[in-house]
Amino acid sequence: MLRISRKALMIITLFLASALAGTACMLFIKETLSRAESNSVVATINGEPLTTEEFKLLLAKNRASTYTYFKGKYNVDDSPRFWDDNYGGEVPIEKLRNESLNEGAIIKIQQLLAKQKGIVKDISYPAFVQQLQAENERRKEAVRKKQAIYGPVSFDEKAYYGIVNGNLAAELKKKIGQESAVSDQALQRYYELNKDVLFVKSDTIRIKKLSVALADHGSLQKGDARALIDDIHDRWAAGEDLDKLLEAYEPKNSRLIAKEEQILDDASIKDNARNSPILTDTAEQLSVGGISQVFEENGAFTMIVCLEKTPQGYRPFLEVKDQVKSDVIDQQYNELVAQLMKDAVIHINNSVYNSINL
């Protein structure tokens, strides 16, 4: 019969106690880590976690648009209670959370699709943080070496999150375009359905323009210039002949009134829109014979009358074929993401989701 000494028994007992304590400690750590992990996830989309860190980035991104929505619809201002109050059955923080969750789900769908197609390997949030750190280090090193960089010296998480996911969507569209064969018939069909909105040429517009320069540009003081052109506008709009009207002004004032005809056409529309955006937009809105209100642009008060508008038809299909194909691929991509969203399995961690505030 095996006999165990008291000393050996004590050693065995201490060993078993230590082992049990270690096991209990491991179980406690595992449970703690599991609980911590669940607290860091707002939702899963097809099993892919949307972390609280990502969700907070989306909340920050959508905060301004949510405030603008409530300001516009209910005319409410920001206040300590703004985000939690109820306005017509809508609560700002709830709307903000919901829209941010929806955007987060779309991002995860895109990320999973990109991973599936081999565009990216790791779509986890820690991988994103590592990528951000590496990019900022690269930029910092480039600045140190006096090399050119585009954009800021360093990105914050919110800005870089948008850039990374925007680039990922662009890569996905490119991949889908390579995988899908879009026939010329499909492109032509899209062109015909959308040409009245997307591919119509700008009308050729002939206008008469009157302007009075401001004092900084060698003319009247601002108030005097405005009073002069307002008087011309009201009398011209009332039906007086413009040439006789201008002759009636004192020579010192009539010399300050610039009068010219101008053509706005498809060839010059970009330059006109860049250099004189108010005039261009006003001319496009006027009907033939219509007289604009007075507006200020390029150092002068100006008014115009539309003399003639001539439609120029459509940009030819072959000229815009590449744009049509890009639009069709965008459409295919959006339909694919919408279907994947419809089929997605989304589990919300409600205790975390409802506890996140601004």
Structure notes:
α3 (92-116) packs across α5 (157-179). This protein has two domains: 48-179 and 337-353, no CATH class; 204-310, Roll (Chitinase A, domain 3), CATH 3.10.50. The protein has helices at 6-39, 52-74, 92-116, 125-144, 157-179, 184-198, 222-237, 242-247, 251-254, 269-275, 277-285, 317-343, 350-353, and strands at 41-45, 48-51, 204-213, 257-264, 295-297, 300-310, 346-348. It has 358 residues and is of the alpha+beta class. The chain is built from 13 helices and seven strands. The chain is 59% helix and 12% strand. Keywords: Isomerase.
Helix content: 55-70%
Count of runs of 4 or more consecutive helical residues: 13
Going across the biggest sheet, name each strand in turn.
Answer: 4-3-6-5
How would a textbook summarize the main sheet?
Answer: 4 strands, antiparallel
The fraction of residues in strands falls at 5-15%
The poorly predicted ranges are: 1-38
Please tally the β strands and state the result. Answer: 7
- Backbone shape: extended
Count of individual domains: 2
Q: From the alpha-carbon coordinates, what is the Rg to the nearest angstrom?
A: 33 Å
| Derived structural class | alpha+beta
What is the H-and-E element order? HEEHHHHHEHHHEHHEEHEH
Q: What is the terminal separation in angstroms?
A: 72 Å
State mean pLDDT (0 to 100 scale): 86
